[in-house]
Amino acid sequence: MEFLDPVLLARIQFAFTIAFHIVFPGLSIGLAAYLAVLEGLWLKTNKKIYLSAFKYWLKIFSIIFGMGVVSGVVMSYQIGTNWSVFSDKTGPILGPLMGYEVLSAFFLEAGFLGVMLFGMNKVGKKLHFFATLMVALGTLMSAFWILSANSWMQTPTGYSYNEVGQFVADDWFEVIFNPSFPYRLAHMVTAAFLSTAFLVGGVSAWHLLKERKEKTKNETARLMFSMAMWMAAIVAPIQLIIGDFHGLNTLEHQPAKVAAMEGNYQTQKGAPLLLFGVPNDEEERVDYAIGIPKMASYILTHDFDGELVGLDQFAKEDRPNTKWVFYSFRVMVAIGMGMIAIGLFSLFLRWRGRLYDNRFIHKIAVWFAPSGIVATIAGWIVTEVGRQPYTVYGLLRTYDSHSPLDAPAVATSLVLFIIVYFLVFGTGIVYTLRLMKVRPGERGKLADEESKVKSSVTLSNRLPHESNKEALNKEGGE
């Protein structure tokens, strides 16, 4: 049975764990930058509303960051166990890149994270802001090194082979700044910012809907929603432009991936842009296709009659899974277009002075809260499944990268991963959702009340002690 193939099981395990992992670093990048902006605005304006929003998202960030670290450790573990041949052959290149990520980025994040989380009342404001900036910088540097390593697997350059068949670096600059890296870094970081914007927008919109029911006014929720909509209105169209450049780069270096994305089985001029359809690999066509004539050629070649290479130019064993790539690409694009529409609609409502009392955009924002996460996972599927059947594109096949493990061993670890992930990360996600249900502005008040209680408890503990000292001194004097 195909399902008992150990390589397929290992791929399923990797897909499952990376789908969990990729969400948390993405949100960490966006939230860290958002927290830095909020704290900077608070220091500049001295308006407590920015501090209130900062405190609201700080604890949520800490939980998401922690889950990202834990899921990342698991990723390293399974690469070593299930993909030992891949690890051995690519180690001289990917090992140093991952090491640079740990030394230059993760240590930076971890070193300042404690100050950021617990140092608000223990260090000066400027030092605390510096710590927040370092955490934000660390998350961006992590993205830099991780995407450099993954991009090298997509478009390998600057390498040669040593005497035992391993990839070794001839030019580290070419390895790091490989052809797809700049586009993928910009695309991923922008996706992280958009994921965060729509998460913040969805949470604040939910509280704005409650505000109408309770007939109250929540200034912190309004601030968060306004900032989220500004981000959507500005960054979502930019992401569309970056995606276009990324697509052109992919067409140059991975034409089979683009052919699968477009559902283009036959090389043709004036290829249509398929909005929807059902890929039929057996007959090599897209059934029930709905498309715009010649638009795919225009987008990818900037010529309505431009020629696009089809999957017919590649042997079947060298093609990616068309259905996964085709559908995932359309999910990602559809969400992206929805984000642009919401951003533009928010500008119209802002102009009309109705951004905070329009129930329609608030409800849409709530539904779109996880949209960035879904789009990120869909984009990852396009990127990684589209690279198949290779782990290092064109050089090392997936079936030549696997550890010599039997199917039962891989299946057992897969089942254990699923159980543990749903227990551990399910608990973390539920707790995070509960934190999001707290009314913005209340968390800061609760923290202040807790501080007052602790101070009063400390004072009450000291008073008897001092009274006893005075009594003892009195007895000694007598």
Explained architecture:
By secondary structure, this protein is mainly alpha-helical. It has a domain of 163 residues. 73% of the residues lie in helices and 6% in strands. It has a two-stranded antiparallel sheet. The protein has a two-stranded antiparallel sheet with strand order 3-6. The longest helix has 40 residues. The radius of gyration is 26 Å and the shape is globular. The N and C termini lie far apart (94 Å).
The outline comes out as: globular
Distance between the termini: 94 Å
Structural category: mainly alpha
The number of helical segments is 14
Which strand order does the major sheet show?
A: 1-2
- Mean of residue pLDDT values: 85
Strand tally:
8
Contiguous low-pLDDT stretches (5 residues minimum) are 446-478
| Helix proportion | over 70%
Task: Provide the succession of SSEs.
Answer: HHHHEEHHHHEEEHEHHHEEHH
Q: What percentage of the residues does DSSP assign to strands (E)?
A: 5-15%
**How large, in whole angstroms, is the Cα Rg?**
26 Å
Largest β-sheet summary: 2 strands, antiparallel
